[in-house]
Amino acid sequence: MKSILVGLIEGSREEYRESLEELKELVKALGGKYVGYILQRKTHPDPKYFVGAGKVEEIRQVAEGTGVDTVIFDAFLSPSQLSNLERSIGKKVMDRADLVLEIFSQRVRSKTAKLQVELAKLTHELPRLYGRGKELSRLGGGVGTRGPGEQEAEVRRRWIKRRIQQIKEELEDIKRQRREQRKRRESSSDLKVVKLALVGYTNVGKSSLLRVLTGRDTFVADMPFATLDTKTSAKFLFPDIKVLITDTVGFIRRLPPELIESFKATLEEVQEADIILHVIDISDKKWLEKVKVVQEILKDLSANEKPVIYVFNKADKVVEKEEDIKYMTEPAFMEGRSVVVSAQKGWGIKELFLAIRDVVEELQEVGL
């Protein structure tokens, strides 16, 4: 995939550049290349093309001149905008949701995650069939009749609706089976079980931290959504308490709504957690803004009232020695417990275990 990126600047140019940089990383994560970007300052998106009609012509000329095959918009396009843009530019058009969904499709491995991504993609595709069907109908059809394009779109629409219902039923069965398995596991053991969920913006090092905390091998890469399947490992911090640590999918700014909805089964691990480890990349200058993104999603999941330990990771990118961690001021910005670590170097892990133990003891006092 060779592409150009397109965006609309509605606020500050600096703020938008951050979103565009994230879009570039998403393109690279998909194995694609981009030759450049086109920006337009505009108060409100154009209802027909998202950008202005003159800018569409500029995009068409640049696309022709550079030989790209895809134009990617840093936005969520409406079905009509997508259809109008593809017709005018003559190239494949993708929006931010298309990009993220495609990455998820390529990366997921477990049956549950595959079902969730398929549900998100079908939910995303359904409203887009209307414009495509009418466009295809120009191939034929008389007055008062449906053309072949509309007929094809209607068949596809009915199939998608049936498949969406099937997937939802399968996911409900999986959720029910998981609940029963957890109950059996907990009732068959005298051990108390504490559930921890690792959450955070994508590419903050959650998988690396899981590997350090549990000793379990996990795939680690410096890219968005390096791992997408939920992973749970056990750790004994007390003789009579088993801690289950679950890594969850990373969040991004403006996550497609379809993904949030379809991944409820995966994020159920967050809803059922006793403690949340909110992992933050301390080397990222915009870490506080990304913390707020994650906090908003936790609020949407009704998981914002749970005990949280803020884990500032990647300290080795900021200081040279572990003993310098104590001079870092970032944790002062957060209410509650904060620990600075480097999962890569193993710094601060002992302090993190102590913080987890403190919260577990507090939960015991209130009758865990």
CATH architecture of the largest domain: 3-Layer(aba) Sandwich
Helical residue percent?
40-55%
Using DSSP, what is the number of strands?
Answer: 10
User: Biggest sheet: strands side by side, in what order?
Assistant: 6-7-5-8-9-10
Report the sheet with the most strands, covering strand number, pairing sense and barrel closure: 6 strands, mixed
Would you kindly provide a written description of the structure presented here, covering whatever features stand out?
There is one protein chain. This protein is of the alpha/beta class and 368 residues long. It folds into 3 domains: 93 residues, Rossmann fold; 64 residues; 176 residues, P-loop containing nucleotide triphosphate hydrolases (Rossmann fold, 3-Layer(aba) Sandwich), CATH 3.40.50. It is 46% helix and 18% strand. The strands form 2 sheets. It has a 6-stranded mixed beta sheet with strand order 6-7-5-8-9-10, sandwiched between helices. Helix 4 packs antiparallel against helix 5, helix 5 packs antiparallel against helix 7 and helix 6 packs antiparallel against helix 7. The longest helix has 40 residues. It is globular and about 65 Å long. About 4% of the residues have low confidence.
